[in-house]
Amino acid sequence: KYRILCDIFSNIKRKGVKMVNLHEIQQRMRECIAGSGIPQKEIAVRIGVSAQTVSKYMRKDVFPALDTFARLCAVLDVSSNYILGIGEY
Predict the structure, then answer these.
(1) To the nearest whole number, what is the mean pLDDT of the chain?
(2) How far is it, in rounded angstroms, from Cα 48 to Cα 71?
(3) Is pLDDT above 70 for 78?
(4) pTM exceeds 0.85, yes or no
(5) CA 73, 1, 30, 50: dihedral to nearest 10 degrees?
(6) How far is 47 from 67, CA to CA, in rounded Å?
(7) What is the dihedral of CA 84, 33, 64, 14, to 10 degrees?
(8) Mind listing the pLDDT tens digit for each residue in 19-40?
(9) Which of 80, 60, 81, 58 is nearest to 69 (CA)?
């Protein structure tokens, strides 16, 4: 998972997009989860992970796999570009 994220960030950097750090991405993801009004257990069910995994997204430096991240964005009704801090949202 970490390698995939590194590849994505590397491609973004080569295209001249301003880099953001992983901490900022995780913070935006946490804010979106917290601000969604959807209980973490319900988010977990909708994206196909355990409630403990969603809790780890909120408390630790854990980032979802890309397919899970895509489902998370859909459930939260938020643009992946916003969470990743790239382009227009």
Answers:
(1) 84
(2) 9
(3) yes
(4) no
(5) 80
(6) 9
(7) 0
(8) 567 888 999 999 999 999 999 9
(9) 80
Q: Is the distance from CB of 33 to CB of 68 less than 8 angstroms?
A: no
| Burial annotation 40-76 (CB, 10 A radius, 16+ → b, else e) | beebbeebebeeebbeebeeeeebbeeebbebbbebb
User: Is 83 in contact with 25 (CB distance < 8 Å)?
Assistant: yes
What is the token pair recorded at 46? 């909708």
What is the pLDDT at residue 12?
57
DSSP string, 32-87: HHHHT---HHHHHHHHTS-HHHHHHHHHSS----HHHHHHHHHHHT--HHHHHT-S
SS3 category, 4: helix
